[in-house]
Write a structure and sequence with these properties.
elongated, alpha/beta, single chain, 417 residues, Rossmann fold, 15 helices, 2 domains
């Protein structure tokens, strides 16, 4: 070791190997009922955040339901985390998605043996509720995400009478947490009006290197039946009632009346696929895509149509923008937060279907405006860096840890019920 009086010349001889290894900053337990290779916004964004937390030298313990073996990728494709797999059940109508089962006793035992600094819960299902109970039993600080508008799905699945009880459960769940992260300021205001407390806005990032206009493939477009100058409209996401896909069909029909060679592409899968195929027999159904293949599908589109009104954010919006697609959407979620209508996309008032269709027609008829909007959308998306999002996420965790009271007494030894 060098002394405090070492000369500058002597200091040059100090080797990096003599310095202490970087320590892990925090021990984090992250609980989620969906994770890659499942394909949805929650799964993909949680994987990004966990990767970012790893890069910031945190120890991450990931608790999630065990997925079917046909979905499990090689371990080399995952972030280096300590995975704890629980029992899982298929989600109705979505057999490729899993939900956890009540696991409070197991989680209390797990966290008693290896106590985390904070527990973060990404989903509010049975596993998430068990994690909340276990964390509070052990007096651990808890943060959560509000990521899915379950209560808004009721009208699409004939569950209208359950909307209020579901909202009541969600409010109870999140208000028992030390902090809840929401993706947009508009969502924060909406939830405050509904009685939610301790909300922090933490947005979503996008991989602007993967989702890039240079991935456009004329060969792929030809396979869709589109020539170099033909307009291709598309949608990416679940093919499900809550996505409001009838508006996509109506907008496409309006465009096709003006441009008969226009093509429509659906990327994704879900319970509405057969119905959509019957209503739009000439549409291309590309199925579920991921990684660079998904990026190429985005880049092949000229107009991205996203009519959903049930999103908390909508990662597909930013992925389309990063891919150089001109986006038409309702003034809601990520689109409402990021798009200036006529500048880097087109917005219609929430639920104003006639305006959505009119915006789509206007975009279809003006190639120069479409190109300018697409370039501006790409510029906007490039500012949404995941490292910034991870830093905001980390700050909320640190705040919850700092506010937590010291654990005194034998609370952690109480019987598990």
């Amino acid at each position: 070791m060098k002394t405090a009086t070492a000369t500058a010349a002597e200091a040059d001889d100090i080797l990096v190997d003599d310095l202490p290894a970087p320590r892990h900053s925090r021990r984090l337990a992250v609980v989620t009922e969906t994770y890659p290779p499942e394909v949805n916004g929650v799964a993909m964004s949680m994987a990004r955040v966990i990767d970012g937390l790893n890069r910031r030298n945190h120890d991450v313990q990931l608790i999630r339901p065990r997925q079917p073996s046909r979905l499990t990728p090689p371990s080399s494709g995952r972030p280096a985390v300590d995975e704890v797999l629980t029992k899982g059940l298929a989600v109705p109508l979505y057999p490729n998605l899993r939900m956890g089962v009540p696991s409070k006793r197991s989680l209390v035992k797990l966290w008693s043996l290896r106590r985390p600094d904070v527990v973060h819960i990404a989903t509010e299902g049975p596993l998430g509720w068990s994690a909340l109970q276990a964390a509070q039993h052990l007096a651990l600080p808890v943060t959560s995400d509000y990521r899915t508008n379950f209560h808004a799905y009721g009208r699409h699945y004939r569950l209208g009478l359950l909307a209020k009880p579901i909202m009541g459960y969600l409010r109870k769940f999140h208000n028992r947490c030390d902090a809840t992260m929401v993706p947009t300021e508009a969502m924060r205001v909406q939830l405050v009006e509904r009685g939610f407390e301790r909300l922090s806005v933490v947005g979503r990032g996008v991989d602007a290197q993967r989702f890039d206009p240079t991935r456009r493939s004329e060969a792929m477009r030809m396979a869709w039946g589109a020539g170099a100058d033909d307009l291709v409209l598309g949608y990416v996401g679940r093919l499900a009632p809550e996505k409001n896909l009838g508006v996509v069909l109506a907008a496409f029909e309006a465009v096709k009346a003006l441009q008969p060679r226009a093509r429509l592409v659906f990327v994704g899968d879900g319970p509405m696929r057969a119905e959509l195929a019957a209503r739009a027999p000439d549409a291309v159904f590309a199925g579920q895509r991921s990684g660079d293949d998904l990026a190429a599908h985005y880049a092949g589109l000229d107009l991205f149509l996203f009519p959903s009104l049930t999103e908390t954010f909508g990662n597909v919006t930013t992925e389309a923008m990063a891919s150089g697609c001109a986006v038409v959407a309702f003034d809601s979620a990520a689109a409402g937060e990021l798009i200036r209508s006529g500048v880097n996309g087109w917005l219609a008032g929430a639920g104003q279907e006639a305006d959505f269709i009119a915006a789509t027609r206007a975009a279809a008829l003006d190639p120069s405006a479409r190109r300018a909007v697409a370039e501006a959308a790409r510029t906007t998306a490039r500012r949404l860096d995941w490292s910034d999002i991870t830093a905001r996420f980390e700050a909320v965790l640190e705040g919850a840890i700092a506010r937590a009271e010291p654990v005194i007494g034998l609370r952690g030894l109480q019987p598990v019920v």
